[in-house]
TrEMBL record:
<dbReference type="GO" id="GO:0001681">
    <property type="term" value="F:sialate O-acetylesterase activity"/>
</dbReference>
<dbReference type="InterPro" id="IPR008979">
    <property type="entry name" value="Galactose-bd-like_sf"/>
</dbReference>
<feature type="domain" description="Sialate O-acetylesterase">
    <location>
        <begin position="424"/>
        <end position="528"/>
    </location>
</feature>
<dbReference type="InterPro" id="IPR039329">
    <property type="entry name" value="SIAE"/>
</dbReference>
<dbReference type="Pfam" id="PF03629">
    <property type="entry name" value="SASA"/>
</dbReference>
<dbReference type="InterPro" id="IPR036514">
    <property type="entry name" value="SGNH_hydro_sf"/>
</dbReference>
<feature type="domain" description="Sialate O-acetylesterase">
    <location>
        <begin position="106"/>
        <end position="225"/>
    </location>
</feature>
<protein>
    <recommendedName>
        <fullName>Sialate O-acetylesterase domain-containing protein</fullName>
    </recommendedName>
</protein>
<dbReference type="GO" id="GO:0005975">
    <property type="term" value="P:carbohydrate metabolic process"/>
</dbReference>
<keyword id="KW-0378">Hydrolase</keyword>
<dbReference type="GO" id="GO:0004553">
    <property type="term" value="F:hydrolase activity, hydrolyzing O-glycosyl compounds"/>
</dbReference>
<dbReference type="InterPro" id="IPR005181">
    <property type="entry name" value="SASA"/>
</dbReference>
Amino acid sequence: MRTHFFIAALFLFPSRGKAQLTLPKVFGDSMVLQRDIAIPVWGTSSTGSQVTGQLGTVHATAKTGKDGKWMLRFPRFTAGGPYTLTIAEQGKPGTAIVLKGILIGDVWVASGQSNMELEVQQAADARREIEKAGFPQIRLLKVEQDKKLTPQADIRAGKWKVCDSASVKSFSAVGYFFARKLHGDQHVPIGIIQSTWGGTPVEAWTSREMLLTSPITKAKTLSNDTLKFDREDFIKDSLSWVRIWDIVYNPQNNANKIFPAVEYNDADWTPIEMPRVLKDFGIGYYEGMVWLRKKISLPESFAGKALTINLGHPEMNYSLYVNGQEVCKNIWNSNATHAFTIPAGLVKSGENTIAIRVAMLWGGGGLNLPADDLYLTDGSSKISLAGKWLYKKDLETAFPKILNYQYYPTVLFNAMINPLIPYGIKGFIWYQGEANAPAAYDYRTLFPMLIKDWRQRWQQDNVPFLFVQLANFMKTKPLPGESEWAELREAQTMTLSLPNTGMACIIDIGEANDIHPKNKQEAGRRLALAANKLVYKQNLISSGPLYKSFQRQGNRIRINFTNTGAGLSTKDGKEVTGFAIAGNDHTFYWAKALIEGDHVIVSADSVPEPVAVRYAWADNPECNLVNSEKLPAVPFRTDTWKGITQK
C-alpha cells in the first residue's frame, strides 16, 4: 500500500518543463546494483524539477540542476532481490520509468582488447559451456562498440540480460567464467559489464586529461584536435569494414575458380618457406587476400583414399582447395581444429595441387605451427607439407583503407567507459597489452595511468583492479634472447606495486599459433582466485610463485620466491625449465635449476661468474615451475639491463 501511495503522489505536482525524464542505458531491467555502497542512479530531466526514486521500499530524491542532470543516492543494500526501481519526476503524470528484476550483488567491469572480447562460443568446449550456462543470478551487459572524440553521457547501446544459454554465447568468455566462479564461491548475484574492443591500445581507454599528463602520450593526444567527429572518414571507416568482410567471405573476380586450378600457371609467384607468418617473410604489414599454392606428389597408395590434411592455424578466415575444389572454409575459428578431410574422389597419385586463400588481417596470415605438424596422412603414413610454397598478393580486390579510429587516444574511454561512471562497482577485470607490446617499456607508465584514471573518476577509493598477464604465444626459440612480450609482462608485474591490484599469470595456457588462447575457463578462474584473495579476503594462494630477491653464491644464484604455498615443484614432474643465466657480458645461457624448498638454485657451466637470472623470458617460453596450488611462476628477470622496447 505504501508503495502505491508513493507512486501515485509523484504525479500530483504541476509540470515545470518539457525535458523528458531519462536514464542512461547502463540502467535496465535485470541489472545488478552494487551492494554495500551508496547506490548511484542518475539521468536527465527538466531544470529545477524534483526527481524521486524508489528501490524496493527505499526512497531517494534529488533536484535537477541547471544542466538538466540529477543524481540519486540510495542507501546501502545487502545482496538480494529481485527489486523494482521506479524513477519519476514530480508533477508529470505518465513519465515514470519502472525497471524490474533487479538484483543487489557485486558488479565488475570487464574491459580490454580481443582476449577479453573473445566470446564463450569461441572458447574451448564451447558447446558444453553454453548448454550449462543457466545462472539466473549472473547478469550480463555488453556495451556496444563505439568511438567518440569527446566524453559521452550514454553508451550507444547495451541491455542487461539474465545469464542463460542464449545470452552467454556472444559474451566475454573471461568475464563469464570469472563471474561463474565468483558466484559459486561468494553466493551473491554477479553483474558483468563488458566494454571491449579487439586490437586496441591502452591509450584508447584512457581519458584525455590523464594522457596529457605524460610526455609519452601528450603529442599524439593533442593530434586528435585536428579531427572532427562528423567528418566523412568516420562513416567511411564503418562502411569500409562492411566491404572488407564481403571480400573476405566472397572470393572476388572468380578467384576461387582460377587460382586453385591444377592448370593455373603460378610461375611468377614468390617462393616462401613454410611454416611461418607471411609478414615475417618480407611481405610486411599487409591487409588483404593472399593466395598460397603447393604442388605435392602422392604415392600410388594414397590414390582414391580420403586423406587428412593438417594446416595448423593459417588465420581466422581462410579456405582450403585441393585440385581446384574447395575442401573447407574457416570463419572466425569456426573449426575446433585445423585438420580437414580431403574426399577420396579428389586424391590422385602423382602431382596434386593444394591452394589456400587466406585473409591477412592485423598482421597475421601464414602456416604458423611446428613443421612436424604440417602434413598429409592416410592414417598410416605422413607426407610433410613443410618447405617450399608459392604465394601472391593483390590478386583480388584490394581492401579499402581503414582508418581504425578505435586505436586513437581516448576515443574508447569517451564512448565506452565515461558513460558508465559512476555506476556502483566492486572492481575491474582487464585483459589487454598485446597491442602495446612493441612499446612495452612505455606500458610501465601507461597501464598504471589508466588504473589511476579510472579510480579517480569512479571515486570509490582504490577500487580493486585485476588483470590478466599476457599468455605465451608465437614460436618457441631455441636460445635465450630478448622479447617484447616478456617486457610487456614485466610492465604488468610492476603494476602490482599499485594498491589493491591483482594479476592472473597464464604463461602456461597460451598457444604458439594463436594469439587468442581458447582456455578462457582457466584465465577466468585465476582472475577469480585473485578476487577471492584480494577483495573477499579468503585465506588462499591466488598466484603462482613471485620473484622476491636473489643472492649470488659463488658460481650459483639463489632465487627467493613468495606465493610458494607448501613448496615449489614442476608442473610436469620433470626437471625445472625456463631459467637462463648470464655474466657481465650480458649473454644468457640456459641454466640448470634445482628446487630447494621455497628457493631455486640456478647455475650453468658456461657462466662461472653469474650476475643475472631470467625466467620465462621469451614470447613463448618453455617453463614449468609451479607452487603447491599448481599455479605457474610469474616470469621475471633479476637484471635491469636496457630492453629492446626502451628508447
